[in-house]
Write a structure and sequence with these properties.
The N and C termini lie far apart (47 Å). The chain has a single domain, classed as Rossmann fold (3-Layer(aba) Sandwich). A hairpin with a 5-residue loop joins β11 and β12. Helices cover 26% and strands 36% of the residues. Bound molecules: S-adenosylmethionine.
């Protein structure tokens, strides 16, 4: 199937639209953040910094929660930011717009504001391949959190995640392909690719390519601790009747081995 695919000929708009619809779920992310933050601090988080924010879809959604909610979406690339401004920011009221800020910048830069919550979702911090680089990033995050703040990352793994295979998910108007193209068991470096097949039956290869290091949960906790986080909390996904994940994540330090998993880690300053 993949051999028949063309090179990516999607417009910039289409590639972000398809990505968001295949990969992102703001509602689930926001309710998880709110629930877990409230469980820790007994109050609602108000300010959010979305690192590697891409189109800033989550940051735009965040400010809709109430008049005291503020957000920043930080991305180094102008392309997704322009898409987000055209498709998400534009739909906010004037008053909401004043509370949401796009920053075209590096997550490694020093920022003068602090946030209740910082997120790095869709495994974006896997771009840091060296422990020292990740440590530096986590230190910057910690410095950017309020004293009653929380840093949320997601993480994936399992035997299947390391196998060179292509997984297809069929959506109403397109198919999404998650392709583990390479995995190096010595360095844990991996190359993942996203392809799409659109409704006109055109196939678009390598729409997004990620050259990452696959980190493990324990490594992330230890690096967070080395960066000064006082506590880390790990979660695992509950199981539905069919044996697949049910979308509900609970706190735990122990889990059953499974072929492929996605979960969250929270670091507290
Ligand atoms: C996998 S996308 C994540 C998009 C979105 N946040 C999500 O959850 O799906 C990774 C994004 O990180 C951005 N990025 C990569 N390196 C960065 C850096 N050093 N600072 C800020 N953004 C960066 C890329 O431009 C890209 O938009």
């Amino acid at each position: 199937m993949l051999d028949e695919m063309n090179n990516n000929t999607l417009s910039e708009d289409d590639k972000h639209r398809l990505y968001e619809s295949a990969v992102q779920c703001n509602e689930g992310d926001i309710s998880f953040i709110n629930f877990q933050y409230e469980a820790i601090y007994n109050k609602k988080p108000l300010s959010l910094r979305e690192d590697f924010g891409g189109t800033g879809m989550l940051a735009c959604e965040w400010v809709k929660q109430g008049p005291n909610h503020t957000s920043y979406g930080i991305d180094i690339d102008q392309g997704p930011i322009i898409y987000g401004q055209k498709h998400h920011y534009v739909k906010l009221s004037e008053e909401q717009k004043a509370r949401m800020n796009y920053i075209e910048g590096d997550v490694m830069a020093d920022y003068s504001f602090k946030s209740d919550v910082i997120v790095a979702f869709n495994f974006s911090y896997f771009i840091f391949k060296k422990r020292n680089e990740l440590l530096e990033y986590f230190k910057k995050v910690r410095a950017g959190l309020n004293s009653d703040g929380a840093f949320f990352v997601d993480i994936f793994g399992g035997i299947e995640a390391r196998q060179e295979l292509v997984e297809e998910t069929v959506h109403d108007e397109f198919s999404y392909f998650w392709d583990c193209d390479k995995y190096n068991p010595i360095t844990n470096e991996c190359l993942y690719k996203i392809h799409f097949k659109t409704a006109d039956n055109k196939k678009h290869r390598d729409v997004f390519v990620y050259d990452w290091r696959m980190w493990g949960i324990t490594e992330i906790r230890e690096i967070m601790e080395d960066a000064g986080f006082s506590k880390t909390v790990t979660f695992w996904e509950g199981e539905g009747e069919d044996g697949t994940g049910d979308g509900n994540f609970y706190r735990t330090d122990e889990a059953e081995n499974c072929e492929s998993w996605v979960t969250y880690i929270v670091g507290l300053p």
